[in-house]
Amino acid sequence: MAALALRRCALRFDQLDIVNHSSTSLASQARNSPQDTDFPTIAASNFVTLCTENIIVLVSDEHKSEAGSRQGRGRGRPRNAEVDRAVLAAAVDLLAEHGFGQLTVEAVASRAGVGRPTVYRRWPTKEDLAVHALIHSVPPLTAPDTGDAVGDLCELAVGFVTELSNSPLGSVVLGVHAECGRRPELGNPLREHYLQPRDAVITDLVERGRREGAIRPDIPADTVRDLVFGPLIYRWLITGEPVDRATAELLVSTARRAVAPGER
Asked: Quick one: fold of 149-259?
């Protein structure tokens, strides 16, 4: 803002008919100027003083406004939800087009129509940006509750994998996950912010199934998860084709028998 004021003052300085009457007061010159004149004829020294004072006031007002805004909202930066959505959508598009390896904050900012600082203030690294792009774009796991926990678990797996594998987001999700093995700076936040909340939903379903007596007590929850979800994801990876519902249901029915009590 101050820089803008300085540029405006410089422009006005060029436009003024500067005269060497430093002893004439600014107020007097204003009174002697035509009423419709935007820029009265004033002394150069007075005009420089006026510009300086204006800039000081503007800077002071900026700091006061910023301080007041911070006080009103507490710590943290203001967030514009529309900007967030635009940036995350741009990140998803670029991940789909070029993959994580070629993703850059500059490209995302350009696609979203914002400046790079706007992106960096929200997500300091491209790893953070990619993770939050997945969180924003991929629907969370929501467990059904029909009274049959194992049936609900199987339906959750079938619905999630078939929908994701048939969606343009599927390749984005697989691509980001594939990068985790060689990029711990990506893998750690992906597990913490994207995978763990989804895993918690699955674990709750498994524990509900144990309470119902429908899941063997000797199988850890993460093993049950792998037995139910794993074959569907492996089928998707190995064939490179979307998983259809009939195939998914056949796979989870086999897993269901493996985790049921009495099965060895």
From this structure: Tetracycline Repressor; domain 2 (1.10.357)
